[in-house]
Write a structure and sequence with these properties.
By secondary structure, this protein is an alpha/beta fold. The chain has a single domain, classed as 3-Layer(aba) Sandwich (Rossmann fold). Helix content is 36%, strand content 20%. The longest helix is centred in the middle third of the chain and has 14 residues.
């Protein structure tokens, strides 16, 4: 059964148009947000890179007042919708911003969810190198993306992504290749399947900066 969006999160988007609210529901059902959230401390400075309309960021902020959550995205319309969802809360903010503008030790946790395969291979590497540079010792990078297995879920992902991103090429890597690259940067990496309750072949990598912090 696909996960339903929590009522308190969905209620933040009551001002959106019908098709935008439909997309919010679909996005929640297709992404392992709850699993990602499970690896994030109750008290931390967090940035969600490529946050879209801010679903994960809002969930993290709603579930712990000790979190300081920032969402960044380069799509103006989505950031407008995310900002409208804040509704006076003071532990969450959204910016129309590039990841390369983030500064050293600004955040304890960086989340890169379901976006790397939309970047070219050099762009992927540039983003991840920057994440390593700006994380403090003991910081965590969470990377969620899609794998080639199981095959039927890969096929489902291919069809859905093509429908939602017509005309845009996707840039995939195998999990082992992601792990190898992240370890070459200096991260300690653990991998997890993240597709148990969704129809897509998602995986999650928890990457720690510093020895034996995972």
């Amino acid at each position: 059964m696909l996960p339903s969006i929590p009522t308190d999160v969905y209620g933040l988007y009551d001002g959106l148009k019908f098709w935008e609210r439909w997309h919010v529901k679909l996005r929640w059902r297709l992404c392992p947000f709850l699993q990602i959230a499970g690896y994030i401390p109750e008290a931390a400075r967090i940035v969600d890179i490529g946050c879209g309309r801010g679903l994960l960021a809002n969930y993290l902020a709603l579930n712990s007042s000790s979190r300081e959550v920032t969402g960044i995205d380069k799509q103006e319309k989505r950031i407008e919708a995310a900002r409208a969802s804040i509704k006076g809360r003071d532990n969450i903010r959204f910016y129309l911003r590039d990841v390369l503008e983030l500064h050293h030790q600004e955040f304890d946790v960086i989340v890169v969810s379901d976006m790397l395969h939309h970047l070219t291979y050099p762009q992927q590497e540039k983003l991840l190198r920057h994440c390593y540079r700006i994380l403090p010792a003991g910081g965590i990078l969470l990377v969620e993306d899609v794998s080639e297995k199981p095959k039927w879920k890969w096929f489902a992902h291919f069809l859905i992504d093509r429908f939602l991103n017509l005309g845009r090429r996707q840039y995939y890597r195998k999990i082992d290749d992601w792990i190898s690259y992240l370890e070459s940067l200096g991260f300690e990496v653990k991998s997890f399947d993240a597709h148990r309750h969704i129809p897509l072949p998602d995986f999650l990598l928890k990457c720690g900066k510093g020895e034996h912090i995972l």
